[in-house]
Design brief:
heterodimer; A: mainly beta; four-stranded antiparallel sheet; 0% helix; B: five-stranded mixed sheet
């Protein structure tokens, strides 16, 4: 069964550094999402992306964050000048075009900011 | 989106049916009910979704009351691997489907051997 894949599984970065998290969505999906989950807390929506542009973003998704679909298969989340509070699991998800189809999630990247 | 209410935790014996309730009394006519689960720190796993009819797939059954104000996810023969946090999410995908999901705290289902 097709699945969303994320790399790396664990990323350790010094505070203030930039980090790029990578995702390969399911191949025929057209909607892409990033979520994060701080340890012990709820899964939180960050941003959605469709037709090469951001469709919706939460208050968490400030100027520090950006997303990109650099080619036909990858979807990336960039965090500039990371902060300690950016430490979390980051999940990518994708969805087929039909409006009520479910989102499918990857297994996440654990981001640790030192 | 309509708010959902789930019990924080439930136990179920291995091999028995696990019935997880969800209350969504403010659901609107176009909102679907989605169920996901999260095993330890893995990504949320889609289980099933429905609008008003009962649904069944290889993982579970979803029973939605006639007034749509509540639903029950049924895992027919629970195994230890079904121990997870289960999320009930109500969502209408307006404008084509770009909207993010709002996760609550879910129900922590513990399958007892």
């Amino acid at each position: 069964e097709p699945e969303v894949t994320q790399t790396p599984s664990h990323q350790v970065t010094q505070m203030g550094q930039e980090v790029i998290l990578r995702c390969v969505p399911i191949s025929n999906h057209l909607y892409f999402y990033w979520y994060r989950q701080i340890l012990g807390q709820k899964v939180e929506f960050l941003v959605s992306f469709y037709n090469n542009e951001i469709s919706e973003k939460s208050e968490i998704f400030d100027d520090q964050f950006s997303v990109e679909r650099p080619d036909g298969s990858n979807f990336t989340l960039k965090i500039r000048s990371t902060k300690l509070e950016d430490s979390a699991m980051y999940f990518c998800a994708s969805k087929a075009e039909h409006p009520n189809q479910p989102q499918h999630f990857g297994d996440g990247t654990r981001l640790s900011i030192l | 989106d309509a708010k959902t209410t789930q019990p924080p935790s439930m136990d179920c014996a291995e091999g028995r049916a696990a019935n997880l309730p969800c209350n969504h009394s403010t659901i609107s006519g176009n909102e679907y009910v989605y169920w996901y689960r999260q095993i330890h720190s893995q990504g949320p796993q889609y289980i099933i979704h429905g609008l008003k009819n009962n649904e069944t797939n290889e993982m579970a059954s979803l029973i939605i009351t006639e007034d749509r104000k509540s639903s029950t996810l049924i895992l027919p023969h629970a195994t230890l691997r079904d121990t997870a946090v289960y999320y009930c999410i109500v969502r209408e995908y307006s404008g084509g489907g770009a909207d993010g999901l709002t996760f609550g705290k879910g129900t922590h289902l513990i399958i007892q051997p």
